[in-house]
Amino acid sequence: MALPNDPSVSINGERLLERIAELAQIGKIEGTKGCSRLAFTDADCEGRDLVVTWMRDLGLTVTIDAVGNVVASTNSDGASGAVMAGSHIDTVGTGGRYDGNLGVLAGLEVIEATLAAGIELKRPLAVAFFSNEEGSRYPPDMMGSLAYVGGMSVEAVLEVEGPDGTVVGEELDRIGYRGSAPCPGAAPHAFVELHIEQGPVLDKEDIQIGVVEGVQGISWSELTLTGQSNHAGTTPMSLRRDPMRVAAEVVVAARSIASEIGGSQVATVGSLTLHPNLVNVIPAKATMTVDLRNMDEPSLQLAEEQLQLRVAAIAEDEDVNVESRSLARFEPVEFDGRVVGQIEQLAKQKGLSTKRMPSGAGHDAQMMARICPTGMIFVPSLDGVSHNPSEHTDPQDLVTGTQLLADTMIALTEVAW
Ligand code: HGY
Ligand code: MN
Ligand code: MN
């Protein structure tokens, strides 16, 4: 897409890297470069306050909606008609410093550099951080952006209870981020999310930019397996109703389903709790989660059906009761080819190496794609490691990705759909 006039801006890499480092001090995991800022905790609140201060210091119009999504815009109409960047600043419990944070701070940097250069654009620019993208304290993941696009009601969000017994609405009130801006929010003109790949492809193939074509489907379920607690020493094996045996075989079943289906199918049992969880007591109850993902919706449905069948068979054999609850279910998403093409064209114009690819991880962009033309830019993750305090991306890659985000956002201010 040729641009009539060619506004451009150079971002300040130093300032970007300093802000990433400063935000990473909040919820710092001692002895690592990672941080822990679970959604709506005090650490999340502190991180929010810091980023909102940076937004306000730029003179941006900052709005906070009913589920704590924060949007900062160069004009008073907020997101509507703006070219918006964004991501999340909440992390998993053992998080890295780049997952989500990069996309928010890069968007802020693009706006600051544009304002500093005094460039007049045809459209406003905006940057957002969405609440609880990770979903690990309160499912589903991408909770804030899902509500922003009208995929989950504010009421439903506010009443979600976490495994720690706390409730979203009460936590939002406690940290002072239950705002008054409307949710669902306004549709921007376009949305672009810069994010670390969190996988091994770009690093292994020594490619600078991932041009993300879409996000794979996600299915999270919670299984509550109830048997009979009993004495570990006196209960013959033939008389046991042991939920831990069922849980163990479900873990193995999940992995074999993934290898049988193949392709991009992945399966993860990430959490398992036993009650009463004592060395000499056959558990009464096992609660576990199963995360299934696939780029192909029919294959993801097949994986879900297979899991259900195998759980039922194992549980029946052990005379254990099963309750299953869906925690999140999102179909695969394809990004707008015009935005994907724009990212790729600008990257190539800069002589950057690029690769079109899907995203294995979920992102706020997959929700924003429901309300506006959307795309994502990936930069490499060292050894593909993420959701791990040792998560690392080379500073030069962070700066290169942010500059490409700037070029893309500015180009999209010139484009009429
Ligand atoms: O679960 C995910 O893929 C994302 O990190 N929330
Ligand atoms: Mn993320
Ligand atoms: Mn994440």
* Shape annotation: globular
- Provide the number of structural domains: 2
The largest β sheet comes out as:
9 strands, mixed
CATH fold title of the largest domain? Aminopeptidase
Name of the CATH class of the largest domain? Alpha Beta
Summed up, the helix count is: 12
Query: Could you tell me the mean pLDDT?
Result: 97
- The CATH homologous superfamily name of the largest domain equals Zn peptidases
Give the beta-strand count.
16
Heteromolecules bound: (2S)-amino(hydroxy)ethanoic acid, manganese (II) ion
> Roughly what percent helix?
25-40%
Quaternary arrangement of the chains shown? single chain
Helix and strand composition category: alpha+beta
Task: Give a verbal description of the structure.
The chain has 417 residues and is α+β, with helices and mostly antiparallel strands. It has two domains: 13-215 and 333-413, 3-Layer(aba) Sandwich (Aminopeptidase); 217-330, 2-Layer Sandwich (Alpha-Beta Plaits), CATH 3.30.70. It has twelve helices and 16 strands. It has helices at 13-24, 42-57, 101-117, 143-148, 154-158, 168-175, 201-204, 243-261, 297-317, 337-349, 365-368, 395-413, and strands at 61-64, 70-73, 83-87, 125-129, 190-196, 209-215, 217-226, 230-231, 266-268, 272-275, 281-282, 285-294, 321-330, 333-334, 354-359, 374-379. The longest helix has 21 residues, at 297-317. It starts with 12 loop residues before the first helix and ends with a helix. The model has no long low-confidence stretch (mean pLDDT 97). (2S)-amino(hydroxy)ethanoic acid binds next to loops.
